[in-house]
Amino acid sequence: MAKISIPCFRIKKTAGGIRYYWEPSATLKKDGWKAVPLGKDEEAAIRAARARNAEVAAWRAGDASPREVRKIEKRHTVDAVIAEFKKHRFPRLADNTQKEYAAKLRVISKWAGTERIDTITRQNVLQFRDALYVPRRDGVVRETSAYNTLKVLRTLFDWARTNEHCVGNPAAGDLDVSTPAPREQYASGPARDALVAAADALGLPVMAAAMILAWTIGQREEDLLKLVQTRYIELQAYEADDPAVYARLAGREADGRVMGIRLRQGKTDRWVGVPIVGDARRHVETALAGARKLGLTTILYDEERERTWTAPARVDRMTRQAQFQRSFGAIRAKAAATASASGDDDLATELAGLQFRDFRRTCVVVMAQRGIPDHLISAITGHQLDTVKKILETYLPRTTGMAMLAMDLTHERAPVQLARETRRA
Q1: I need a surface site. Which of 11, 60, 138, 227 has the fewest CB within 10 A?
Q2: What is the rounded average pLDDT for all residues in the chain?
């Protein structure tokens, strides 16, 4: 007998022969739905089971309710709560966070969108967890996606409880899942050089400026793309804690000026002027000249479409961010192909695995490799000190070069008397 896939339709062998039943799920049974015997006639039983399922669908939609079944209210379904959650919470979230939440909420909706949220049990959540961790056809378990979906589910239930859609949070507490390993990628020096060369080869100097800015000042992609030209200013000598530092920065520039970008650090809400020097300055000023010629207000822009990477409407912003990622993807592919053609497979592999977001981490690692203290790194990137320390603990390799740098700095910064004694010895 062919398997019949109809929700709640059951076939049982009895002493009197094959009999058919409609049996509610545990959730439906809790709401008052009763099992119904459907007799021995298969075709009639199938018609009856489908009719019963149509009644359930109408009940879930709030259009009808059998006398013995608890009335369902549309506003308490998971889908309805998701809609309310998005309406009230999304305006306070960044675009990328909204995009991430929306993707996870679609998965949750597919799982239980038509169910009343106050009927979802801990067991239901654990079954959902298990389904999320089932390997895909290629055998890969999408652990990060599963973990983040469960985090969004927990947040959704917390919001629903606060707004009296349910009395508890079945997704709270330990769900016996491990925290996914963080991304470990950062761009090495050869990788950074290869990406800039690829951008120049593709005729995308503004994209080169975007990458250089990202690994020079360590800001998030979204913040970089909306940087307005008025943030690029000349920094003044009185802003330096040490006049000698300002003099050294100015002395390295052909025009003797210290140019920089004024940033508001999100954690401290303070304005900080970050110097932009050398190669980074040349690329930024190339981008600035192009933007001004087009009448744009941002430093960085889409040079292929001659428009900013930002837009007032959220849908337009998301579209342009996707286009930015495609532009970066083309540069990455070009750089990896060039490295592979030259026989440097290790560099090609590194390039292929990089994402633009990795450049923020790269900024931290590069400065630490050059002996910059944690608190000074934090002043540029805006990270909290604890975050800087965690990044360095995870990603910073301890090398002979670093040991040499440490010893060099130790002697360079030694008191004069100590330096003299060292020379005499």
Answers
A1: 138
A2: 84
